[in-house]
Design brief:
alpha+beta, Nucleotidyltransferase, domain 5, 6-stranded mixed sheet, 4-stranded antiparallel sheet, 5 helices, about 30% helix, about 40% strand
Length: about 210
Amino acid sequence: MNRKGDKALVVGLDIGTSRVKVLVGEYAPGEPVEVIGIGSHSCNGLKRGVVIDIESTIHAIQRAVEEAESLAACEIRSAFASISGGHTHCRNSPGIVPIRDREVSQADIVQVLEAAKAVAVPSDQRIVHAIAQEYSIDNSQDGIRHPVGMSGVRLEVRAHLVLCALSAAQNITKCVNRCGLQVDELVLGALASSQSVLTDDEKDLGVALVDI
């Protein structure tokens, strides 16, 4: 984990077709993230979200990271990296697990999402996200968004799986690693944008974010 003094750092790395952008934020428990540094550099190492020139991509990441480090006065060791492109796609998948101790815990949430991910995936693809759409308990309570603390015997989830080309994920990870950084997690670019821009009310109303 990145740290600066007594605060933790979170780093976002957006590897796009024309530019690489880095954002550094710092936070303490219970406090919002404060942006303390940004970096940007032109990049021509990707095409449609797929790395086509590793060395060019590495160079762009290094320059953008150096700029962000200079502004934030910190050393970046890891980052959440974006992934996007036509090789990404989605599918729905259910998951079901018994509820331990008859009360839903966060561990049960993790387990049921893992159950939803236990589907046959082609060898050239990997699952990037398992996003819960809704939960149900004992087939009598459905449409649940936050089941933690609720009582029951069986927990089910309707999940939305985001998949990508395995080689695309591996090459992005390789580029980041070659810059001396670890990848905390790969994040679908469109999902990251929606989480940053749309409010919960807008999501409930079905607002779509179009990134052109």
